[in-house]
Amino acid sequence: MNVREVMVKAPHFCDAQMNCAAAIEHLWTAGCGALPVVDAGKKVIGIVTDRDICIALGTRNRRASDVAIGDVMTAEVVTCHADDDIHDALDAMRARKVRRLPVVDGEGKLEGMLTASDVLVHARHNDGSRPELSYENIVNALRGICLHCPQAARR
Length: 155
What we know:
The strands form two sheets. The protein has a two-stranded antiparallel sheet with strand order 1-2. The protein is built from five helices and four strands. Helix 3 runs parallel beside helix 5. Strand 1 and strand 2 (44-49) form a beta hairpin. The protein is of the alpha+beta class. Helix content is 33%, strand content 14%.
């Protein structure tokens, strides 16, 4: 199974100049928790999550409309390609402790979005046959993603 079979093919996105207030509205209406950040040529230059925005606004004493996404996004974004094996994408999520991967083409342009939730939904075949992607694969990936907090923080 490859990423193309599971990814969202028309993901929501924003640019670095969008302010946090507009991005929050976009996240809310789209029902998603992250937006790939793209340049004018639709090349992925970062990613911003609802959590990134909340932390930025909670620590800056500035209005959401005065803070640009470019100031709060993660610039070192982990991506994958549509033809990548889904297990490789899960391995990347686990290794980098992320639940969302923008899917890019060979030039780094946004093609889709892969989330851990999307992978979970596609784990079963409708005909009851054994899935190419088992729940064990998914649970192991989620365990790896979620176990990034120090032990003291989880007590």
